[in-house]
Amino acid sequence: MATQRTFSIIKPDATKRNITGAINAIIEGAGLRIIAQKRIQLTQAQAEGFYAVHSERPFFGELVEFMISEPVVVQVLEGDDAVAKYREVMGATNPADADAGTIRKEHALSIGENSVHGSDSLENAEIEIKFFFNDDEIVG
Ligand code: ATP
Ligand code: MG
Q1: In this predicted model, what pLDDT tens digit does every residue of 3-21 receive, in sequence order?
Q2: Lining residues, ligand 1, CB within 6 Å
Q3: Are the C-beta atoms of residues 103 and 86 closer than 8 Å to each other?
Q4: Catalytic one of 68, 117, 118, 133
Q5: Whose CA is nearest to atom 18 of ligand 1?
Q6: Is 3 exposed, middle or buried (0-12, 13-18, 19+ CB in 10 A)?
Q7: Which of 19, 41, 114, 128 lies at a C-alpha separation of 20 to 30 Å from 51?
């Protein structure tokens, strides 16, 4: 399997509850390496831009408000088949549908407050990593 990079956000419900370490323990336990990381406060423009693909969805306003409600931790993850592996580790969007042991099953509060984001394709991973990180911030 090829080594890939994917993009992760630890969302406001998780930073607020002080469980960023617990979430990263699951990520590292799955064999993914956190090769870049920063805790930031998203602006409304950043949150709207990042989730632009959902701008026509009924929950868009709620999603943006949530994403700017507390700081987030943005991260680059690296490993074999990282994009698909991290989606697996996150679990289903709705924690009620997520498998045992996944981040969302263990930690998410609801379909909206679901603790983590992960890129859904290699192409989007590259776009999302560039949205938040300069090359010199990714040291491996
Ligand atoms: P993410 O993109 O955050 O990794 P995902 O790919 O599993 O999650 P998407 O369909 O891309 O799910 O939705 C993006 C985010 O929008 C979800 O993670 C969730 O926070 C929010 N969301 C999705 N569906 C709903 C909904 N029905 N009600 C409220 N919020 C929702
Ligand atoms: Mg998504």
Answers
A1: 999 999 999 999 999 999 9
A2: 54, 59, 62-63, 93, 111-112, 114, 117-118, 120
A3: no
A4: 117
A5: 93
A6: exposed
A7: 19
pLDDT digits (tens, 9 = 90+) for 71-118: 999 999 999 999 999 999 999 999 999 999 999 999 999 999 999 999
What six digits make up the tokens of 32? 């993914």
Coil, strand or helix at 118:
strand
Q: Give every CB contact of residue 102 below 8 A, 6+ residues apart in sequence.
A: 26, 88, 89, 90, 91, 92
The pTM for the full model equals: 0.97
> Could you tell me the two tokens for 8?
């992760």
CB atoms within 10 A of CB 105: 16
The per-residue pLDDT for range 21-65, each reduced to its tens digit, is 999 999 999 999 999 999 999 999 999 999 999 999 999 999 999
Give, as one character, the DSSP assignment of residue 96. G
Listing DSSP states for 16-36 in one string gives HTT-HHHHHHHHHHTT-EEEE
Token couple for 98: 């997520």
Token output for 138: 């990714």
